[in-house]
């Protein structure tokens, strides 16, 4: 007997085509995969630029409900906190007239942000359906770890209230690795939540993109014969970009190794300042580009970089790695101690990952990948094989749908 197709609400604070972030791209890939399985998908997401309370459009056959909300990305911390706090209120005000008891059979919501609890609660009550939380960011813990937020302060308690309220709405919570799962359950208050491992994901089928407008990054930056080490994505405190800039400085002895960073965040000024201070002629920075251009850039680069700050106590799997893996690009980067991403990537020979602070080891691995083209190819192919084995959007979509059916 054929299984009934589900009406699913997918909630995220940032979405295509306006976003350049990996989370938005991943969520769209998930929506398309769920749609290909026959389910009806509605994305609920904020938009800072629209004049109406609700604007409904369509992206690749996916229905997108965009509600008006103040900006929450790339702005100062206090206005961001205020605007994020209003997400659920503004969303419900906008979509309430469209929602009835038959609207949705399941809800999938993505964190960050921690402020979706109230919206999810209202949708669950109205539609009598389960909710799956894809938890990618243990906020506010990471900003406490970074020393940006004082433990026990009023603002931390404020964030903790919304964090827990968001968790309480989930019938099940998906965390990205075993270490993150262990870390989550270390907190006594979290013991009652039902959780499982849900990896980050990517579409593993080759995507061919052609654009007559695209000018080769190698051409535009005069990098035709260079080996490009590439970092693409958020450039912020959580990444510890100084760590990668130290590598750029060490690699300056190789004239044909070039480092290209593309993205936005709190540490853009830092990387520019360090490049100037150290007089680095092997480094280029560009602001964020749209997803189509980003995918085309990935086809031109040689080695994919990433970094996680050493003070993290949670164990993230940066979404940018999936883009590298999908394009057969070897991975090179640093993680916080105990992060199981290190063992996974190194064991599968998908690249080289070291503990943040092991600058000499990172440099040696960069040197190996730079000097040995065959090693680059092998690691790139192994990275793609790992993607297919562990991070396929097909298996992720099937897992989530199976859980939601069991919880109905």
Write a brief structural summary.
With 408 residues, the protein is of the alpha/beta class. Helix content is 40%, strand content 19%. The protein folds into two domains: 7-201 and 392-407, Rossmann fold (3-Layer(aba) Sandwich); 217-390, Glycogen Phosphorylase B (Rossmann fold), CATH 3.40.50.
Question: Could you name the key traits of this structure?
Answer:
16 helices, Rossmann fold, alpha/beta, eight-stranded mixed β-sheet, six-stranded parallel β-sheet
Find the structural class using helix and strand composition: alpha/beta
Write down the CATH topology of the largest domain: Rossmann fold
Overall residue-averaged pLDDT value: 91
CA-based gyration radius: 21 Å
Specify the CATH architecture of the largest domain.
Answer: 3-Layer(aba) Sandwich
Describe the structure.
Helix content is 40%, strand content 19%. It has two domains: 7-201 and 392-407, 3-Layer(aba) Sandwich (Rossmann fold), CATH 3.40.50; 217-390, Glycogen Phosphorylase B (Rossmann fold), CATH 3.40.50. α12 crosses α15 (373-390). The chain is globular and about 65 Å long. It is of the alpha/beta class. The chain has an eight-stranded mixed β-sheet with strand order 3-4-2-1-5-6-7-8, with helices on both faces. Strands 11-10-9-12-13-14 form a six-stranded parallel β-sheet, sandwiched between helices. It has helices at residues 22-36, 77-85, 87-95, 117-127, 141-145, 154-168, 178-185, 217-220, 241-250, 268-277, 291-298, 320-326, 340-347, 359-371, 373-390, 393-407; strands at 7-11, 40-47, 54-59, 62-68, 106-111, 131-135, 172-175, 195-197, 227-234, 257-264, 283-286, 303-307, 331-335, 351-355.
């Amino acid at each position: 007997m054929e299984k009934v197709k589900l009406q699913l609400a997918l909630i995220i604070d940032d979405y295509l085509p306006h976003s350049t972030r990996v989370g938005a791209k991943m969520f769209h890939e998930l929506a398309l995969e769920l749609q290909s399985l026959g389910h009806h998908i509605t994305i609920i997401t904020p938009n800072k630029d629209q004049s109406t309370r609700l604007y409904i459009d369509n992206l690749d056959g996916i229905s997108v409900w965009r509600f008006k909300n103040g900006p929450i990305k790339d702005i100062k911390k206090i206005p961001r906190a205020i605007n994020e706090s209003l997400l659920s209120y503004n969303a419900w005000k906008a979509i309430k007239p469209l929602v009835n008891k038959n609207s949705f059979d399941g809800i999938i919501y993505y964190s960050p942000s921690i402020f979706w609890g109230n919206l999810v609660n209202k949708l669950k009550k109205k539609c009598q359906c389960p909710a799956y939380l894809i938890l990618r960011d243990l906020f506010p813990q990471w900003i406490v770890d970074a020393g940006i937020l004082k433990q026990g302060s009023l603002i931390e308690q404020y964030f903790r209230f919304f964090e827990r309220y968001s968790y309480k709405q989930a019938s099940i919570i998906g965390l990205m690795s075993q270490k993150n799962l262990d870390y989550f359950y270390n907190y006594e208050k979290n013991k009652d939540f039902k959780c499982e491992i849900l990896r980050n994901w990517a579409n593993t089928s080759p995507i061919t993109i052609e654009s007559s407008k695209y000018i080769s990054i190698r051409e535009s930056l005069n990098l035709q014969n260079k080996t490009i080490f590439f970092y693409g994505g958020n450039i912020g405190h959580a990444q510890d970009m100084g760590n990668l800039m130290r590598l750029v400085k060490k690699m300056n002895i190789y004239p044909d190794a070039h480092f290209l960073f593309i993205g936005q965040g709190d540490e853009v000024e830092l990387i520019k300042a360090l490049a100037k201070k150290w007089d680095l002629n092997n480094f280029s920075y560009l602001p964020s580009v749209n997803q189509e251009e980003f995918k085309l850039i990935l086809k031109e680069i040689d080695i994919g970089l990433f970094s996680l700050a050493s003070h993290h106590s949670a164990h993230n799997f940066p979404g940018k790695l999936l883009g590298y893996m999908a394009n057969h690009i070897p991975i090179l980067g640093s993680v916080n101690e105990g992060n199981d991403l290190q063992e996974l990537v190194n064991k599968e020979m998908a690249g080289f990952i070291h503990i943040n602070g092991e600058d000499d080891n990172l440099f040696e691995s960069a040197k190996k990948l730079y000097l040995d083209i065959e090693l680059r190819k092998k690691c790139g192919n192994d990275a793609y094989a790992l993607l297919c084995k562990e991070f396929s959007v097909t298996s992720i979509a099937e897992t989530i749908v199976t859980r939601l059916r069991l919880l109905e």
